[in-house]
Amino acid sequence: MAKKSGRTLSKKQRIDKEIDQLEEKLALKKQEQQALNDQLIQETMAENDIKPEDLLAIIEEKAKERANGVD
Prior knowledge:
Blueprint: H1 2-47, H2 52-67
């Protein structure tokens, strides 16, 4: 019985290790995605000649439109 318990624990440890590795991969993928999103935003702003200080006003305007039911 003790032997089986030891095997189960080692199996649990392997599963926990795999979960940790997957969580690390997911965190890296999220960072990569955020970097790509940031790059796309910068490129779009440059293409449309939008300055960073103008961005907040644009976002607020869109939020007001959505709040009033305009898309």
